[in-house]
Write a structure and sequence with these properties.
The chain is α/β, with parallel strands linked by helices and 506 residues long. It has 3 domains: 12-270, Immunoglobulin-like (Sandwich), CATH 2.60.40.1730; 273-367, Neutral Protease Domain 2 (Neutral Protease, domain 2); 373-498, Orthogonal Bundle (Neutral Protease, domain 2), CATH 1.10.390.10. It is built from 9 helices and 24 strands. The longest helix is centred in the C-terminal third of the chain and has 18 residues, at 435-452. The protein starts with 7 loop residues before the first strand and ends in an 8-residue tail after the last helix. The protein binds tryptophan and zinc ion.
Length: 506
């Protein structure tokens, strides 16, 4: 819902039929395309990115999405030995508000083909990128899919410009084969086709593989999901079921509503052979768990034991961090794997099994990462450091290793080890999930607690979570909050711990 900082690009149409987008310092006006733009001058194109150095084309400028209404139909792959390819068809109804006088804007969409676009009910016609210049008049859209450059954009020109502050409804119909997309480090993410459905996890910018989106955590929105899958399959998204599933002619439609603003990477619509169970915590928070019927017996036992602890974990973290930030919680545990778990909002996704420490980690992310999200991807340690630190606390609470011992373990790593060469507050797009982001990040928080004392640390934590609730914030914001809470200048502390690629001297 909050917009990212503006960063402007110019569209350059190349002769071989691909457009490249080059950062420029000036506003990229689309020029005079005749009237019909609501009167008054100064209409221009929204930027094709949110301004994040790590993923320049993730997110978009010029507008702010408030709601995604997603109507999806998914056919999982045929049984072995057919290829692992499914089919997804969708209609996304996007409510947005222009943050500038807007006569052209982008959405992110990867590997799907757009078949229809309308803005406020007015259809745009598809044109080829080379024709996407001022010579084409009227409502239009085009797609750029450049896998090598990792540029995936739908550009939309409404018939009528959208004035700054005005709301618009954009409807995009699209579809395509679903594959097994990978992130910049070659980890599976996005709409990951599995034999029995799909694991859907979008961090950092994989959500664009399943619907047109402004795919950056600075643009949070609420979501409604209508997901139609073959009868017998269960589709699980964020939030709560808004009405019972309905079966007709061999297809079942699942309805989910996620009323808390969420970052795009935290959306899920995972499909599989899940049993759904619903309970409530003592304070009445709904817990919805979706557990694959085909877990191995050992994984099933591990998962059941871990998920049974969710209410206690929520109590424990609420005592430390303040009340649980959303209207529901729970888990999606798939018998397939993407190689990791993700803290999808209100409903983390687990691969193969849910271990206790992982459940604590993904739950802690609901406060740190989900409610308060990174302002830019360089700030990822604010997610992973906190989730790791919180798990240290949970483990200690459970009578396991003390947080001090966990800290000592990190500080026992030899100063010559490459572990210490990561700049934690700027690990690079391929370093988002390296050990140092997690463990040195957690050690930073432990050391901060030591330095400023328990009362200031708790006050800073609550101030952080209150001030940036349902929003995003940076490492600089974090330092400022803890300086306020402690009354200390912490610049040397944060320089040492997260901005210098050298082991801190204890
Ligand atoms: N954010 C996840 C977690 O820590 C981890 C994650 C997301 C990840 N994408 C990844 C880990 C890719 C390794 C590779 O809960
Ligand atoms: Zn994590």
């Amino acid at each position: 819902m909050t917009a990212g900082r503006a960063r402007w690009f110019t569209v350059i149409a190349l002769t071989m039929g691909v457009s490249i987008l080059v950062p420029t310092t000036a506003t990229a006006t689309t020029g005079d395309r005749g009237g019909g733009h609501g009167g008054g001058g100064g209409f221009s194109a929204g930027a094709p990115g949110a301004g994040d150095d790590y993923f320049p084309f993730a997110g978009n400028g010029g507008f702010d999405v408030s709601h995604y209404d997603l109507d999806l139909k998914y056919q999982p792959p045929a049984a072995d030995p057919a290829p692992l390819v499914g089919r997804l068809d969708g209609r996304a109804t996007i409510t947005l508000t222009a943050t500038q006088n807007l006569d052209q804007f982008n959405l992110d969409l990867r590997g799907m083909d757009v078949s229809a676009v309308s803005v406020n009910g007015q259809r745009s016609r598809e044109i080829d990128p080379p024709a996407a210049t001022a010579t084409v008049r009227g409502a239009a859209y085009w797609q750029v899919q450049d896998d090598a450059a990792r540029i995936w954009e739908v550009t939309i020109r409404p018939g009528q410009g959208i004035r700054k502050g005005q709301r618009a409804t954009v409807v995009v119909e699209y579809g395509g084969p679903t594959t097994r997309p990978t992130d910049i480090e070659d980890a599976l993410y996005g709409w990951v086709t599995t034999r029995d459905g799909a694991i859907v996890v979008g961090e950092p910018e994989g959500t664009m593989t399943w619907f047109p989106v402004s795919d950056h955590p600075t643009d949070k929105a609420t979501y409604s999901f209508t997901i139609t899958v073959p009868q017998g399959k269960t589709a699980v998204a964020n939030g709560l079921q808004s009405r019972p599933a309905k079966t007709r002619a061999g297809w079942t439609t699942w309805y989910w509503e996620a009323p808390d603003p969420q970052a795009s990477y935290l959306a899920t619509a995972t499909v599989g052979d899940f049993d759904l169970t619903s309970t409530r915590t003592r304070t009445g928070l709904p817990i919805v768990n979706a557990v694959d019927r085909d877990l191995t017996p050992a994984n099933r036992a591990t998962t059941d034991a871990s998920l049974a602890l969710q209410p206690d974990m929520i109590d424990f973290f609420s005592g430390r961090f303040g009340r649980y930030p959303f209207g529901s919680f729970g888990a999606i545990v798939d018998d397939d794997t993407v190689g990791y778990a993700l803290e999808t909002q209100t409903r983390p996704v687990y691969s193969l099994r849910a271990r206790e420490g992982t459940v604590a980690h993904e739950l802690a992310h609901q406060w740190f990462g989900d409610s308060v999200s990174p302002h830019r991807w360089a700030d990822i340690w604010l997610n992973e450091g906190w989730a790791t630190y919180a798990t240290w606390l949970w483990t200690e609470h459970r009578g396991g290793q003390s947080a001090q011992a966990s800290f000592d373990e990190v500080m026992g790593i030899d100063a010559a080890d490459p572990f210490w060469t990561t700049v934690v507050a700027d690990p690079g797009p391929k370093g988002l999930f390296v050990d140092a982001v997690y463990d040195r990040g957690a050690a930073t928080l432990f050391a901060l607690h030591e330095k400023i004392g328990d009362p200031a640390f708790r006050a800073g934590t609550r101030l952080w979570l209150q001030r940036y609730r349902n929003g995003d914030a940076s490492t600089e914001d974090f330092q400022a909050v803890f300086e306020k809470a402690s009354g200390q200048d912490l610049s040397a502390f944060f320089d040492t711990w997260v901005r210098t690629p050298v082991k801190p001297v204890q």
